[in-house]
Amino acid sequence: MPAPPANKRVKNKRISRNIIIGSEAYNLPPVGDPTRPKGIPDDHTKRWTVYVRQPPGDPDIRAWLNKVQFKIFNTYENPLRTCESPPFEVTETGWGGFNIDVRLHFQPISGEKAQYRQHFLQLEKYGDEKMQAMQERTGCVRSEFLEVVQFNEPTEALFEALTSESQWDYLTAGMKGAKKAAAMAVGPNGRPKRGFPNGERTAQLPEKGGEDVPFSGEGEDALIALIREKIGVVQKSLEEETKKREETEKRLKDLRAELGHDAAQQAAQQASGDRSRRR
Ligand code: SLL
Predict the structure, then answer these.
(1) Which InterPro entries does UniProt cross-reference here (predicted)?
(2) How would residue 4 be classed by pLDDT, with cut points 50, 70 and 90?
(3) Which of 55, 121, 177, 201 is most exposed, with the fewest beta carbons within 10 Å of its own?
(4) Residues 43 and 140 both lie in one domain
């Protein structure tokens, strides 16, 4: 099968993906503390990481995301940091928060231009008392936002990638044997997967059924045979009923004829009686 073209678009389709854009910051041990890492400027009080991640269990971000650039504060060395592959993150040390430009570059098959997001690097505690107590206890300040990326009328190649079962392969990548087989038998929605075991999508039913395979060619044949048998039963009883109806109709006709004859006589008698009484 040739690869779908990267310029043809799938009309009236929109596919969305969620990503998490966030940062986490930890206090550095103070200057003079033997555990403070060497080579960090004295005025730096935090170590932080800014990142783009996929929500756990979501389809593979790599299906559509090619690379991420983080534009950090311009006093840093090489402030435009490029991550060509996961993890899409930058770790640095510093003393203050600032806005970070996040540039999302899509896979070439998508034919999409880069998109921009912003994330404020939050270093200080924030939120309600309970939240700040937690930040104090763990020594970690985290700030995360869910971002949605929408693909309107994606290219055929991107559509293929965003609908492919292989987007979940990463979930079973580390598994082996029975565990992997069990995990692969169900899709991300917990239902048995459609298609062939090699992940090829198809409307074709698998030949044989099984515990995890409720619909199969075998099952379909059995169902057709059952339906044919029941059609036969219905046909037979229809014939019987038709015969009964014909018999009943015939009896009714005979009875009417008989009754008609009697009724006519009766009416005639009554009429003559009436006449005799009037006289
Ligand atoms: C702003 N909040 O947005 C201020 C500036 C800059 C923080 C914050 C160290 C940088 C370095 C650092 O943490 N800078 O060492 O280059 O205007």
Answers:
(1) YEAST_sf, YEATS, YEATS_dom
(2) low
(3) 177
(4) yes
Give the pLDDT score at 197: 56
75 within ligand 1 shell (Cβ under 6 A):
yes
Q: For position 176, what pLDDT does the model report?
A: 81
Q: Would you say the CB of residue 40 lies under 6 angstroms from ligand 1?
A: no
256, 149: one domain: no
95 ligand 1 Cβ < 6 A: yes
Q: Do residues 48 and 59 lie in contact, with contact meaning Cβ atoms separated by under 8 Å?
A: no
- Which range of residues forms the domain containing residue 263? 216-279
Ligand 1 nearest atom to the CA of residue 93, by list position: 13
Residue with CA nearest ligand 1 atom 13: 94
Nearest Cα to Cα of residue 48 among 71, 29, 34, 27: 27
What CA–CA distance (Å, rounded) separates 126 from 141? 8
CA of 48 to the centre of ligand 1 (A): 12
Residues 151, 64 contacting (CB under 8 angstroms): yes
Tell whether the model's pLDDT for residue 199 goes beyond 70: no
